[in-house]
Amino acid sequence: MTPRAAPLLIAALAAGCTSRSADSFGLSRADQPGNVLVFNNGSEPEYLDPTQATGHPDGRIIQELFDGLTEYDPVDLSATPSLAGSWDDHPDGRGYTFHLRDGARWTDDSPVTAHDFVWSWERVLNPVYLARYAQQLYTVERAQLYNRSQAAVLQVEVEGLAPGTPLELVSSNLVAPQTDLNLRDGPGGAAREEVGAGTVLLTTGRVDGGWVEVRYRADCPDLSDLPALLDCAGPEQTGWLPADSVEASFPVLNQRVLTREVELLDDDGRPLDGLDVGDEVVLLTRDGERARIFFGLRERYGWLPADALADPRGALVHYTARPLPPISWDGEPLVEPDTAAPEPDATPEEADVIPEEADAAPQEAAPVSVPLSALESHPELLGFRAVDDHTLVVRLNTIAPYFLQLTSHSTLRAAPRQAIEAYGARWTRPELIVTNGPFLLEEHKVRDRFELVKNPDWWGAQDLRLDRVIAWSVDNLTASVNLYRAGETDLVVANDLPKEFIPILQGSSDFEVSPALSVYLYRLNTRRPPLDDVRVRRALAMAIDKRDIVAVTRAGEMPASHLVPPGLPGYAGPAGPPFDPEAARALLAEAGFPGGEGFPELKILYNNLESHKLVAAVIQDQLQRHLGVTVQLENREWKTFLKSVNVGDYDISRGGWIGDYLDPTTFLDLWMTGGGNNNTGWGSAEYERLLAEANAQSDPDVRLSILAQAEAVLNEEMPFIPLYWYVWVELKQPEVGGYYPNLLDQHPLRTVWLDR
To answer: What's the pTM?
Structure first.
């Protein structure tokens, strides 16, 4: 039966079908043949690529097609062995050594190795791929620096540093204002010409009382074009900007430009086309005189002569850099050669070490000036490596016991390098895809269904109790419930129930409600006036009575006073601004909009589910009544909605987040400047300082206290409005076993069975 036929059955059911138990909402499927699980997965997944996927519909399919080092325990969410049959904790608590199983294979019969994870995780962190979930790996040594192009390997000797030295790029002489600003004659001085947000400027290095001096040329028509800025006529001038209004530009370090016509070859030496002189590429590796490059959005790779590439910025851009400390791969304290303890029979003079100073903390290396042309980014910088095919060592920058939950997450599952490099963006098609999980992709009909079948070659196939899985892609919630009621599906997954059904379902034996680590919120686009004014954002937040929202959602949700949901042991999030219409009106007036006068009309963007429309309508009414502010409602299909949000094409947008692991950082890390899921345009140096300080803490109570301070910054700045904390509501046939409620809504189907 297709989902479109389901509504036709409802009238028939009401007319007297009797195969439903008295207290069950759905028709029984106990007489269905075979071990075939059928459910509706909701919206069509955006990606099947573990590197790119972020949505829950994507994750449910990826979890079955691709195996992880670990897998979630379906009851308590602890990490259970999967591709890693075992692992060892490092002595300092800041790392793990994973031991991969013998015999694990991809569906093309190649072995799954530790090198697959190294390649896949580097792909998540490589800034060229724009992976929106890259922060899932930020607990790994140097991962955040690498993802932000702030880590590089020195290629030539500079100021006494040897080639091959890993460097942290502290700052650049390239800066760009984050908002439109006026240049000043001096610190706090008279305003001069305006520079727009994103304009590239050069710093002089002078800072005075929170102001930074920048260089520019008044006669340049386009200051964002750096070569033109340096080559154009006219005298160089200086001006001053607030130091906290500009941010350094860290471009992709391996960006290169093709300088002459050359033959481009694939991995097997066959000619490729698609490159012209002047095209920009990304340098991946060097092999003697050859260079392997990436070009075209996420699609193409090839080899060409290394001397045909040049840095488009040359030595014009300099970084202030300092050597990165070495990584202690085994978790034991590093002993540097110049502080090594003398041999027992050596004198202090012979060891060239003063005994009482041997334990002194090493001095931080002095920063050096390095031209961009002397830098390259390399995966070897990162805190994970394959010792051999079956051993993966991971070093963390903090004690993070939740990392083992992260290794179960879809983003950290290995992707097939061989298929991606062979087929580019087409690699996830059923006829091309290569997987390694418990199920195989047999069929995918876009906006219709996925059909998965048991993988007989999966290492744990003998324990699988399902033979086939059919996952519909129906984003109409009423149609989804009708399918279940008609006995066509075994499950309605969490929170895919129309709100108007909730009162009807109360008391049904197949209806389940359970706690969730999840928040529903509205993003505010801080790049767009007047939402760039924190007073406006706080006014909007304080004008919303969240009790009215949960009154229409009707599933037992709780009004959210802050971002991080309750339920995490030891963490108490600080309350944000309360519902206070009078204070909201005062803030709006202070921002220049008394009684809403002159306030521009805004749009609330949401994906096309009826439940989102209900929430948007409540907020539309409240903002009009309490502030005199008019907003329009706009709904879009899921993929189109995501694209609009990802490029910042919205005023206010519906959002939600399900925790990926049981720690506050699963919510707090989202809002780091430039984060793949921070689509608000907001950023705060103080916020990121607090997150970094918390990461450096070994005392768990102190760490959670600092994280609460970081959440307080969000409450003050309000780049989004938390509206309510979810509960999970779902429908499940009694014959479905091994599918348990849990905080993260994680249900690996390897543990599910049908009692028929």
So the answer is: 0.80
Report DSSP state, residue 59: H
> 10-14 long-range contacts, Cβ below 8 Å, gap at least 24?
10/482, 10/485, 10/486, 13/485, 13/486
DSSP run (H or E) holding 100: strand 95-100
Sorting pLDDT into bands at 50, 70 and 90, what band is 9?
A: very low
Give the type of residue at 461: A
- Residue predicted with more confidence, 20 or 121: 121
Domain annotation covers residue 150? no
Q: Could you tell me if residue 164 is inside a domain?
A: no
Q: What is each CA distance from 199 to 176, 192, 236, 441, 442, in whole angstroms?
A: 5, 16, 16, 47, 50
Q: Do 211 and 298 belong together in one domain?
A: no
- For residue 565, which of 521, 523, 520, 519 has the smallest C-alpha distance? 519
Tokens coding 70: 């670990």
All residues at 6 or more sequence positions from 43 whose CB lies less than 8 Å from its CB, including other chains: 55, 57, 473, 475, 607, 638, 639
Reported as a single tens digit per residue, the pLDDT across 556-610 is 899 999 999 998 989 999 999 999 999 999 999 999 999 999 999 999 999 988 8
Q: Are strands 652-658 and 602-607 parallel, antiparallel or unpaired?
A: parallel
Task: Report long-range pairs for 738-743 (Cβ below 8 Å, ≥24 apart).
Answer: 738/74, 738/465, 739/74, 739/491, 740/74, 740/75, 741/512, 741/514, 742/72, 742/74, 742/75, 742/76, 742/77, 742/514, 743/77, 743/515, 743/516, 743/517, 743/567, 743/659, 743/662
Region 292-314: mean pLDDT is: 75
Q: What is the CATH number of the domain that holds 544?
A: 3.10.105.10
Sheet containing 151-154: order of strands: 368-371, 318-323, 166-172, 151-154, 375-376
Domain carrying residue 630 = 511-729
- How far is C-alpha 420 from the chain's CA centre? 21
Are both 680 and 633 inside the same structural domain? Answer: yes
C-alpha count within 13 angstroms, C-beta hemisphere, residue 269? 0
Residue 544 sits in the same domain as residue 635:
yes
* Position 478 in a domain: yes
567: left (phi over 0), alpha (psi -120 to 50) or beta: left
Q: List the structure tokens of 454.
A: 């048991």
Do 571 and 685 lie in one domain? The reply is yes
What does the alpha-carbon distance between residue 178 and residue 527 come to, in Å, rounded to a whole number?
A: 9
Within 10 angstroms of residue 28's Cβ, the number of other Cβ atoms is 16
Quote the CA–CA distance of 420 and 501 in Å, as a whole number. 43
168 within some domain: no
CA-based Rg of the chain, rounded to a whole angstrom? 28
Cα–Cα–Cα angle for 539, 544, 547, rounded to 5 degrees: 155
Q: What is the count of structural domains for the chain?
A: 4
Q: Which of 567, 607, 435 is nearest to 61 (CA)?
A: 435
CA distance 490 to 42: 14
Max CA separation in the chain (angstroms): 99
Q: What is the side-by-side order of every strand in the sheet holding 280-287?
A: 271-272, 264-265, 300-305, 290-295, 280-287, 255-258, 309-310
Cα–Cα distance, 651 to 624 (Å, whole number): 16
- Looking at the fold, whether 89 and 191 belong to one and the same domain comes out as no
Q: Are residues 78 and 199 in the same domain?
A: no
Q: Are 481 and 452 in a shared domain?
A: yes
